[in-house]
Design a protein that fits this description.
The chain has 125 residues and is mainly α. The protein has helices at residues 2-21, 23-40, 42-58, 62-88, 92-124.
Length: 125
């Protein structure tokens, strides 16, 4: 974590210097730094996948509930990063559109889970 924070801080400071003369290079530097940090997170993602598989084996019906939550989380992360990159490139309209798209996608992924929970609550009443 500390190494990733250092890479991002250094790239942010360098991007500030580059932004005056070459804003496109500053944006690319931010994107490359972000990709570098994501590559360092691959081990953590593998651990989460292993945990997901373990829970699925222990609780057979859990995949129906866990999969939408994981998709929702991925959509939220991708939306946030993409929106911030657009905002950094001074594309505020594109940033707002990405946020709206991410919200709609997250809701569509969560709908089966919401319906399932409502059926469960309805069965209890």
């Amino acid at each position: 974590m500390l190494r990733s924070a250092a890479v991002l801080l250094l790239s942010a400071l360098t991007a500030l210097i580059l932004k005056k003369n070459a804003p496109e290079l500053a944006l690319m530097l931010s994107f490359v730094a972000l990709c570098t940090v994501f590559l360092s997170l691959l081990d953590t993602v593998r651990q989460f996948r292993s945990l997901f598989e373990t829970v699925t084996v222990l609780l057979p019906n859990s995949e129906m509930m866990i999969r939408p939550v994981l998709k929702w989380l991925a959509i939220a992360i991708i939306t946030k990063i993409t929106s911030e990159l657009c905002r950094d490139a001074s594309q505020n309209t594109a940033s707002a559109a990405i946020e709206l798209l991410g919200t709609v996608c997250a809701l569509s992924v969560a709908m089966p889970l919401i319906v399932s929970m409502l059926k469960t609550v309805g069965g209890l009443i």
